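Continuing the batch. This is chain 6 of the set; chains 1 through 5 are on the previous pages. Same settings as before, nothing changed between runs. Recording input and output for traceability.
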Amino acid sequence: MRSHRPTASSQSRVELDVRPSLRGAESAIVVCDAHGVVEWASAGVPSLCGRTPTDLIGRCAKALAHEAGVDIATVESVRTRLAAGETVRLELRFGLPLAKEIELCVQPVPGRFGGDCDFVAVLTDVTSREASARALAESEDRYRSLVESSPAPIVVHSDGRLRFVNPAALDLLGATTAQDLVGRAVMDFVHPDFRAVATERVRKMEETGEAVYLLEEKLLRLDGSVIDVEVAGTAIAYEGEPAIQLVGRDVTERNRSEAERRTLESRLHSARHHESLVGVAEGIAHQLAGLASAIVGTADEALSVAVEARTERALRAVRSAGLRIAALEDQLRGFAGRGRVVSRRIDLSQLVVDVSERIEAELGRQAGVSYELPGDLPRVSVDAALVRRVVLDLVRNAADALGAGPGSVRVTTRAVDAGAELLASVEPPGLLEPGRYVALEVRDTGCGMDPETRSRMLDPFFSTKSPGRGLGLSEVIGLVRAQGGGLQVQSEVGAGTIVTVLLPALPELASAGPRPRAHDHASGQS
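Output for chain 6:
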């Protein structure tokens, strides 16, 4: 009769080979002879497969495997591999009432008497391990589903390269498919101004594992455009390797809206400041008008009865001072846009031609002047005398900006379809409506203005010139405002100044005619 216990030598060999599979889990051992008949089974068999050792001993392992649900092809494959000396692992699943997940490890061992090999089968309960694995897989599936459907852009990178991007990240970076991004260097999408900061942040997360909360930076999309984003990052394991997960949100529109809000607030403040100055100027102009009238009237009356030449000279000096006060009152009314206006339909290009000789006289022989004056512009309804005064004031300012050194001035006119974006930079703020305008532009290559000067350039009596030169741009904007127009100033230190006057175009267009001509003047040559 066969012995149902393995020899000491075979038992020790079994223990050596199967011990790594047990890992403290519930397990049992079954020993078969070279013909696959069960010779011995350990006491743990019932709890694992619902059968006692007595039920198994003497049974053929092939039949038992079939009863356990292993198909014939798998059984034959196992026999072939065992014959080749391999160790074979299978997973068995027992239904109710056991509900067990069993790992079966079968390996050949030397025969006890030097004959054919016996076989040892080790059964290990891996139900909890399988359940944990399923739970982990389900958790990973849920997490991936959440990430894929998240409206927030999410990317994962390791070793400096993108490994995963969700659909929101594709939209953020302007990509169509994940293949457009995965494998690319993550720093390719970070704006150069922020790469040093981003590199240090990644290094810190990799070394410490600490999360980085929302920080704002600029990214580059695939088309090269720049966007503002807020990014939070954390160190994770991705496919078994250390990685960094970044979650972001596009704040470009938010920042643009905030910048527009600040600009509107600044322009509202500027408008209120301008209106307050207008009120002050009107009040002073009213007082000066009365004072000038009284001085000139009294002087005229005294002159009519003056006998001595000395007295007459003094009275004429008093009268001249009264007239200067009256001129200053006129300037203040001009700044306030309340000057006397006699409008008529004019061609702005022709008006510049008419005053071109005076323009060149203002600039002198040192500066060059050029013109671009189309002859088919829409007409404007303005006071020609006041607009001539505007042109000459702007040219005079350009001449002052050039100083004694060489330079050039260019005077141009053109038609402009002004939208809200352009009009947002026009003074006075908020008064002009989008529409058709005719622009007069005076551009110089002079010294330009610094930000402080630009912030005060429209204040009355503020000037970088010597005293006594008038109201400067503040008077110009008043005269332009009186014509229903606006003024735009662009200037940087060392880059010159561009002053553009916008005047509302009349609805009908003039028929194309000969182009007005004003000769170019450079270094004293015409």
